[in-house]
Amino acid sequence: MRTTSNPVFRNLPKQEGGGYATFGSAPAGAAQATQEYGQPYQAPEQYKTDQRAMTIDDVVTKTAITLGVLSVAAIISYFLVDGNTDLAAPFVIGGGLIGFVLVMVASFGRKMDNPAIVLAYAACEGVFLGALSFMFTSVEFGGVGGSALIGQAVLGTFGVFFGMLVVYKTGAIRVTPRLTRMIIGGLIGVLVLMIGNLVASFFTDGGFGLRDGGAVAIIFSLVCIGLAAFSFLLDFDAADQLIRAQAPERAAWGVALGLTVTLVWLYVEILRLLSYFRD
User: Fold this and answer.
1) d(C-alpha 16, C-alpha 88), whole Å
2) Relative to the CA of 60, which of 240, 253, 262, 270 has its CA 20 to 30 Å away?
3) CA–CA distance, 110 with 12 (Å, rounded to integer)
4) Rounded to whole angstroms, what are the CA distances from 217 to 151, 250, 277?
5) Bridge partners of 53?
6) Is the pTM for the entire model greater than 0.85?
C-alpha cells in the first residue's frame, strides 16, 4: 500500500499493485483493472458519482490552467516589485503564507478537487514566486544580478519534470513501497534540517550553513532538488491510481494542485542553487 510525499495526494484511493509505467495509458474501466489485478475493482465510495471518469487529458488541461494562472501572477508580481521594491517582502511573505494555508485546507479539508482553491493557490504562489525571483536577481536585495537566472531556473524545472515523466513512463524506476518510504524519510529529514537551520540562524550567523552559498549549502540544495525530482514519481503514480479508480473528472484539479506544489518547490531550489554558482 503506497502513499505519496505530496500532502495534496494523501486522500487518494489506495490499492495494491500500481501504475509503474502506465500513467495515462490505461483505460479507467473496471474491466481493465480486473484484467491486470486478477480481481474485480470497486471504486471507492467517494468516487461513485454520475460524473464522467477522469482521463489523462483532464490532468493535462487542469495542470496547464493552474500553471498558466501561476505564470501570469508571477509576471505581474515581478514587474510590480520592479516598480516598487517595497512590495517585495509583503508579496513574498503574504503570497507564501496564504498559499501554504490553501494547501493545508485542500489537503486536510478534502477539497483537493475544488477549482477555486486550486486557482487561488496558483495565484498566491505566482505572487510569491514573482517577488522572490526579483529578490534573487536584484542586487538591491543582495541578489546576484541578471534576470537570465530566472529563465535558467524555469528551463531546469521543466527539464527535471519531463525527465522524471519519461522515467516513470518507461518504468526505469519503479514506484515501490520501499522507494516511497525512502523519499518520505528524506523529506522529513530535509524539513527537520531546514527548521533547525532557521532556529540556529537566530543565534549564529548563517545557522548550520545550509543557505549561505557555501559548499554545504550547494550540497543541501542538490539533495532538495533530487528529492523534489523523485517526488514527481510518487505524484505520477498517485494520479495513475485516480485514473484507474474511475475518479470523477473534477479530481484532476487535485492532481494539478499536487504537481504544482512540487514544481514550485523544485523551481525555488533550482533558483537558489543557480544563485550560489552566480555568486
Assistant:
1) 47
2) 270
3) 10
4) 22, 40, 11
5) 248
6) no
Radius of gyration of the chain (CA): 20
Q: Which helix (H) or strand (E) holds 150?
A: helix 148-170
Q: Strand, coil or helix: what is 250?
A: helix
Q: Which three cell numbers stand for residue 233?
A: 514519481
Closest CA to 167 of 218, 120, 223, 231: 231
pLDDT on residue 7: 54
- Express each pLDDT in 157-180 by its tens digit: 999 999 999 999 888 888 888 998
Dihedral of alpha carbons 121, 122, 123, 126, sign: positive
Across 87-91, 176-180, 204-208, which has the greatest mean pLDDT? 87-91
Q: Which residues of 194-254 form beta strands (DSSP E)?
A: none
**Phi/psi at 53 (nearest 5 deg)?**
-70, 150
Instruction: Decide if 81 contacts 134 (C-beta within 8 A).
Output: yes
Quick: pLDDT tens for 221-235.
999 999 999 999 998
Reading the block at residue 142, the C-alpha cell is: 543582495
- The C-alpha angle 176, 180, 186, rounded to 5 degrees, equals 145
Distance CA 198, CA 202 (A): 7
- CA dihedral for 140, 144, 147, 150, sign (positive or negative): negative
6-63 pLDDT, tens per residue?
Answer: 555 555 444 444 443 445 444 333 333 333 333 333 444 444 455 688 888 999 999 9
Candidates 237, 173, 168, 260; CA nearest to 4 is 237
